[in-house]
Structures are given as C-alpha cells and as structure tokens.
Structures
1.
Amino acid sequence: MIVGKFAVVDGVLYSARYSTGRGSGVGLVVPGDQPRPEGFTRHERFGWWRDAEWDEVDEAYEIEVWARAPGGWVVQVDEWDEETGQAWVTHMTHVQERSPFGRYEEPAGEPPYLNYRRYDLMSDGWVPGDQLTDVRSVRRDVDLPRGRVS
C-alpha cells in the first residue's frame, strides 16, 4: 500500500516531508536500508535525508488512502508497515468530507478498538491491513510555488 507525500526532483521520485503551506522547502527521504544517495545525510528517524528548495521540485503530490475498518467506520490510513501488514489509521468524523466515501456513511460513535482522544475528537491505532475493506486511494497534487513550471 502506498501512502504519504511525494516529490519528483530531477526525474527521481522521493518520499517527502513538506507543509502544504510551502514553507521554505522540501525534505527528500530515501529508506535507510538503501545505499546512500549522493548529497544525502543520515537522518535518525527517516533514513537518508536531503533538503531541497521548492524550485528544484518538478512535481509534488500526496497519496491519501481511505478504507472501511472493522465495523464499517471510515478511516484514513496514515502509515503502512510493510513488514507486519499493519496500518496506522485515524478516524475523525469532522474530516470525513475529504474521504471518497459519502458523508456519514458509517456507524455512529467511535471504533471501540482504536484509542479515542477526547481532547481532539479523534481515534487512532494499528489495524491489521487484511481487515481493511473498500480501500480507496486519492492523489492530491500540490501546487508548486509561482515561477515553477511542472
């Protein structure tokens, strides 16, 4: 399952870290188990890391993954662990309008198997990927800063 933010720089696709507010730049990420790419340094959390300016980016987009979790709740997949087949999911009723599912097409309440955080009105936690159904991916392109043609 592919989920997250991505950027294309010099024709190479990278996992990326950036704010949609554009900030000052983009962090390009290569998994740490791969050989060190030229110009990248070791990052404790992400693997190999390189800062890039927005004018270096040819294309940027985010892949959102939405699914139905056990019981029929609509969740967003925030992270996918390839080794374990587990998905870190979030359920937030107030953002369901971003999902490709119809609004309120789910049971009332919160999924009882996720950790509910009353202070931010959301639930999250790990769910076995094989228990997710009706998985849907949505690509959201990021507008590059002005002056850049993609």
2.
Amino acid sequence: MKRNKRLIFIFILFVAGLVLALFSVPNDESEIILAQLAPSTESQMCGYVLSDGKTTIVIDGGTEGDAEELINEVKKLSNDDTVDAWLITHYHEDHTGALAKILSDSESEIKVDDIYSCFPPSDLIQLYDPDCYSEFQVIDAALEKSETSDIPKEGEKIQIGEFTVTVLQIPDLSITTNFGNNSSLIYKIQAGDDSLLFLGDAGIEAGNRLLNGPYRSQIKNIDYVQMAHHGQKGVSEEVYRYISPRNCLWPTPV
C-alpha cells in the first residue's frame, strides 16, 4: 500500500512538472535574417534581402544578371515567395536591374507587393547624369507597368509587418554634383532590437545633408550601416564617425 502511495505521489509530481514546463515555454520569436547578395556578374552591385519568415523586404537587388540569385534568396527566406516591400535607393542599373527584369517577367517565380522609389525628373537626369539616362529609362518603364509602385515622402514612416521603415532622405534637386548617386533615398529600418541604415550611393553632398538635416538624431549609434557607394567615394568619414555603427555592410565585389 505504501508503495502504491509512493508511485501515485511520483506520478503527481511528474504531471505537475510537465504542466509547469508547458506553461513556461517562451514564445517562439521569428529569427530575423539579413542577406547581403553576392554579385553574379563582374559588375559592382548592391542588394539585400531582410526577412523574419513572415515579412520579406528587398533593398535594391543588383543588376539584371543578379536577378536569378535574388529570386533564389527570396524563395529561401520568404514563406510564400513574396516580397512585401521593395525599397529602391536610386535608378542606377547595379541597384535596379534585377527588379526591372523581374517586373518584366510575367511568369516570375516571386511576387512583389509594394515598391518604394523616388527619382529626380527625367530632364534633370538627362542633363546631370546623361551616361546613366538609359538605365533610368529601363527601371522607369518597368515601374510604370507595375501597379505596386509608391513614391514615399521624406520623413515618412512605413510599417511593413514587424519592420518599421523611415525614409530619412529623398533626392535634393539642388545637389547637381554626382547627381545620380546623390539622389539616393536613405532608409532606416528598425528590425526587432536592431537598427539598419541604407545609404545607397549617397555622395559627400547627400551625406552632409543627412548629417546636418532634421533627422540627424535618428542616425546615431546605428547597429548596421550599408557603406555608401560600395564603400568608395561615398559619404564622408565624418558621417560614419557620427553614425558610429556597430557593424558595416560592405557591398563590394572581390
């Protein structure tokens, strides 16, 4: 009889422990992954995929030749082969070629919900960046066929799933030096506890505008910063010193 009571007591302890374990399991938080794409061609390029499994964001995406690798990365990270938001920094082909190709493919393996871009007027591109005007025409034509294209405003906050995107800078048409690169949109993304800053190809002038502009306080102590213009001839050292990043994303081919 005593043995039976002992077994019953042990059984009760076991059940109590199991119930306690079930109720003490922490919520399963999705892992956030940021993938920096490698170039598929000899061209420099800039492309990132950010995803928590439920929501997927692409930043730029690289050249036309990088489209296949980009698609594969989206399919790997997204649970439904969908890009919830595609953020474009500027019109140069090494940042927009892949997107233009995907938008022109009626049988694309991935779906794009929303695209955010803001380009200078075409006549100014022709005047101040004539060598890249044809690159602008390609992405502009692709976006015109898309029903998912949005033009964000400076300072606008965009909620995309659990990610918060803040548009810190849009093209300043008074900056005509290094026109195409300096027209880069600058995005800050809050991803969980981490902040990410994407500078596109911003040059010295656009970097100084950011440093001395109304959103200066929002670029301090960033966790991950994408090096402007592939880490060469981009924003000044002063900008990076102020940002004081914990990590640098350096989209530069070998």
